[in-house]
Structure formats: structure tokens, C-alpha cells
Design goal:
There is one protein chain. With 342 residues, the chain is an alpha+beta fold. The chain is built from 14 helices and 12 strands. It has a 3-stranded antiparallel beta sheet with strand order 1-5-4. It has a 3-stranded antiparallel beta sheet with strand order 6-7-8. Strands 2-3 form a two-stranded antiparallel ribbon.
Length: 342
């Protein structure tokens, strides 16, 4: 069997130039992080939502930035890959009421922004093409917001961006705690809509919304038909769909049905509307899309890459074979295939 081609959803239909949404998501979803400060800065910018051209002084930025870090330290103490951090140590002291907010902000101004402003726009080997702020610490004691950031906040996906930042942050900090390669096996909980990951006692606990975790990687589009979806409550709220239907769960092939490898976001029409997929197996052409999506997550250093590898195989060929075999088993049980309407 030849290699499964990369589907049009992720290649041929992509614009020749990355959109502002693409670049923002790349910063938050694909950057290699050594500390969680990039997420805190992204959250602070989205919270403040300053207009293009405005200078945000560091003393204005420090409070939402530091409080975001402190909030996550309550959730997960490991917020960096380094052995120690004097800034994080002070944030912990704030959480324990050993210092007040004024002292926390002073510490943040002295230590919290040392690297994150310089590194914020870096993805891979260089900066994204368009910047969301300009570093003017030397002249204005802050950062100047660009018109591109204002335009980002005017896009249809703007309401989803805080959820995506939060979901990525939760996954990254959990990956650091578990040292990724050893134990990070995620599962989907049907009742809560959350991804479950092991806590310190290795019991699975809800970490983040599955919608929020997957949406950025589908760029706000239905997996099947590419129509717009969102993760905030609206008429376009995405469904978390089992590519191979949940109806397979009681069968001998259904034990893996809640794996991350089998979860996609779909519009309601494709998932459960009239003419939707329901309990049918997607058309063979869509299997290529699922394989490419999983390979995309594995190749982009997604925090769940180890989960995907553990669930489907250690090599690309092995993962492709796993999907092909699962597809054969699924169609033998459910008989009918489905594809979205043109």
C-alpha cells in the first residue's frame, strides 16, 4: 500500500501566506517552551486587548502576567524545565501569602520579562512574519501593540484564542510533570468532554477541554467539510466526534475508541445533522486526513505526541497500518460508509 497522501484540508487549501490566526496559533501551539511565560504573556495580551499603536507599560502588563502564572502554579507546580527559578519562587510565595501583590509586581518587573518578550514571536528557527507587538522597553518602558494584534482580535476566531492558550498551557505543564516520554497517556471522557491525564497518584483526572486542545490544530474548521466551527457557546459550537464511531465501543475493537488519535472536531451538520455521519464509518478518502492530522500533531511537538505514538505505533508506517486495520475492522461491524456533502 502506498503512502497516504496529505489531505487538502492541511495543504492545498492553505493560503500562500500564513494568516494572523495561523501565526498567533503557531506561537502558542508549536513553539518549544522551556517555561510557561509565553502562555502567560499571551493570556495577558488577550485580557488587556490593547488597541494597535498603544504602548503597554511593563508595570501594566506585570499584574495580569504574574497572576496568570500564580493561578497555574496552584494547578501544577512545575512551570519550567529548569531546576529553579527565582521568579517562580516569588510567585509561590505570593500564593502562600508571604508577599503581597505590590511585591509580586515588583518581582515580575525585575525578573519575569527577562526572556519572554524577546522570544515571544519565535517559532522554530525564527520569528513569525508579522509581529503582534514591538519591544520598546528601552525607550517607553513597555511594548507597542501593532495593528496586526488589533486585526487579530477582530477575526472570527478571536473568542476561541484564550481557550486555546489555556488548553495548550495545561497540556504542556502536565507533560513537564510527567516527563512526557514515560507516562503521558490521555483519554477522552464522554461525560465531561475533558481530556484525562494521570495525576501524581497516577489516577486520571480532567486536565483541559478536548475542544480547546484540538481546535487550534484544525484552525477553527470542521474536520470533515471545513466549515467554520468554534469552541465557545454558539450555533457553530464544535462537536467532539469519534472518527470511528462510538457505537464500536461495546465490540472487541472498541477499547481504543476514546483515544486522542480517534478524536476530531466536527460541525453539527457533519456529526449529527440530517445526512450526518452518525454511526457510519467515514469514507476511505477521509482516513488519509486522519492519518495526516495525527502525523501533524506528532511532528509539531504537541504535548500529546507520546500519547499518539503509544496508541497507534512508533513509526509512520506502523501508524498508517494501524488506521488501515482499524478501518477494516470498523466497516466489518458497521457496514455503511459516509462522506460529507459537497
Amino acid at each position: 500500500m502506498g503512502a497516504i497522501p496529505v489531505p487538502a484540508l492541511y495543504t492545498a487549501h492553505a493560503p500562500p501566506k500564513p494568516t494572523l490566526q495561523d501565526q498567533w496559533r503557531a506561537i502558542n501551539l508549536f513553539g518549544r517552551n522551556v517555561a510557561s511565560y509565553k502562555f502567560a504573556l499571551a493570556e495577558a495580551l488577550l485580557t488587556l486587548a490593547p488597541a494597535g499603536g498603544n504602548v503597554v507599560r511593563l508595570d501594566e502588563l506585570a499584574k495580569p502576567f504574574a497572576l496568570a502564572v500564580c493561578r497555574h502554579l496552584h494547578l501544577e507546580d512545575k512551570q519550567s524545565t529548569s531546576a529553579s527559578s527565582s521568579f517562580l519562587a516569588e510567585c509561590r510565595r505570593f500564593n502562600q501569602s508571604e508577599i503581597d501583590e505590590t511585591q509580586l509586581i515588583a518581582t515580575t518587573l525585575a525578573k519575569g520579562f527577562n526572556n519572554v518578550i524577546d522570544a515571544f514571536h519565535v517559532v522554530g528557527q525564527g520569528d513569525v512574519p508579522q509581529r503582534f507587538f514591538i519591544d520598546e522597553r528601552a525607550t517607553s518602558s513597555g511594548i507597542r501593540i501593532t495593528d496586526d494584534f488589533s486585526r487579530l482580535l477582530e477575526t472570527a476566531s478571536a473568542l476561541d484564542l484564550p481557550n486555546e492558550v489555556e488548553a495548550r498551557w495545561r497540556l504542556v505543564e502536565t507533560a513537564w510533570r510527567l516527563q512526557v516520554g514515560r507516562a503521558m497517556i490521555a483519554a477522552y471522557d464522554d461525560d465531561s468532554g475533558q481530556l484525562l491525564l494521570p495525576n501524581r497518584s497516577m489516577r486520571r483526572v480532567a486536565v483541559t477541554s478536548c475542544r480547546d486542545a484540538l481546535n487550534g490544530y484544525q484552525q477553527g474548521k470542521c474536520f470533515y467539510c471545513s466549515s467554520p466551527i468554534t469552541v465557545v457557546q454558539s450555533e457553530n459550537l464544535a462537536d467532539v466526534d469519534h472518527y470511528f464511531p462510538h457505537a464500536l465501543r461495546p465490540t472487541e475493537v472498541g477499547h481504543a475508541i476514546n483515544g486522542v488519535w480517534n478524536l476530531v472536531l466536527a460541525c453539527r451538520a457533519c456529526n449529527r445533522g440530517e445526512g450526518g455521519k452518525s454511526a457510519r464509518v467515514p469514507h476511505e478518502d477521509l482516513l488519509a486526513r486522519l492519518h495526516a492530522r495525527n502525523e501533524f500533531l506528532i511532528g509539531s511537538h504537541h504535548p500529546l505526541r507520546e500519547t499518539l505514538i503509544a496508541q497507534t505505533g512508533t513509526t509512520e508506517a506502523g501508524r498508517r497500518a494501524y488506521l488501515t486495520e482499524f478501518d477494516g475492522a470498523a466497516i466489518s461491524k458497521l457496514i455503511h460508509r459516509w462522506k460529507p456533502r459537497d
